Each structure stands twice: as structure tokens, then as C-alpha cells.
Amino acid sequence: VLTSEYAERNNKSVVRNYGSLLIELCGIVPDGIVCFFPSYKYMEDVILQWNHMGILDQISEHKLMFIESKDVTQTSIVIKTIIDF
Q1: In sequence order, which ranges of the chain are alpha helices (DSSP H)?
Q2: Measured between alpha carbons, how far is 58 from 51 in angstroms, rounded to an integer?
Q3: Quick one: angle between helices 12-28 and 40-53, nearest 10?
Q4: In this structure, what is the dihedral angle of CA atoms 34, 20, 29, 70, given to the nearest 10 degrees?
Q5: CA distance 26 to 8
Q6: How confident is the model at residue 80 (pLDDT cuts 50, 70, 90)?
Q7: What 3-state class would DSSP assign to 1?
Q8: What's the rounded Cα separation, in Å, for the pair 37 and 18?
Q9: Is the CB of residue 77 less than 8 Å from the CB of residue 83?
Q10: Are 58 and 21 in contact, with CB atoms under 8 Å apart?
């Protein structure tokens, strides 16, 4: 199931299903993909779960990943580097 209900946000099957959807999209979308999260904390939690599930490895087979940091300066430098690349 895919849901955005707050009560289900930490449900492992929901997290896994969103990861599976992202893997499928990465395989067919020719350019980049942006994945938004409602908070840094939730993003960190999901990324940890996706890492344990092997989802990040599967995504990295298709796309270069950039995970935004809370540090605005660091994020700006990385984005400029990517754009200049």
C-alpha cells in the first residue's frame, strides 16, 4: 500500500513500497528525479530504512544520489559542483 497518512509514515511496508516505486521510476525516467520529504528527520529515518532494505543500492544503479544536508553552505557548494560538472 502507498499512503501519506501520518499514522502510517513509519510502517515498514509503506516505506518499502515508496522505495520500490522510486526504483521503478529511476529505471524509466531519463534524467534526474527529485524526492521530497516533509522533514529532515523523516528523510533521515526513511533513508536509513532504505539503506537496510538495499533500496539505495538499487537506486544508485540508475541515478547519482544527492541527499540534502541541513547546512545551507554545504548544500550550495554541492549543487554548484553538480551543475558545473
Answers
A1: 12-28, 40-53, 55-60, 72-84
A2: 10
A3: 80
A4: 20
A5: 24
A6: confident
A7: coil
A8: 12
A9: no
A10: no
Whether residue 78 is predicted with pLDDT greater than 80 in this model: the reply is yes
Residue 84 in 3-state DSSP?
A: helix
State the Cα–Cα distance between residues 64 and 85, nearest whole angstrom. 13
Task: Give the pLDDT confidence score for residue 84 in this predicted structure.
Answer: 79
Residue percentage of the chain with pLDDT more than 70: 99
Among 14, 16, 19, 10, which Cα is nearest to 2's?
A: 14
Residue 23 pLDDT exceeds 80: yes
Q: What are phi and psi of 39, to 5 degrees?
A: -160, 160
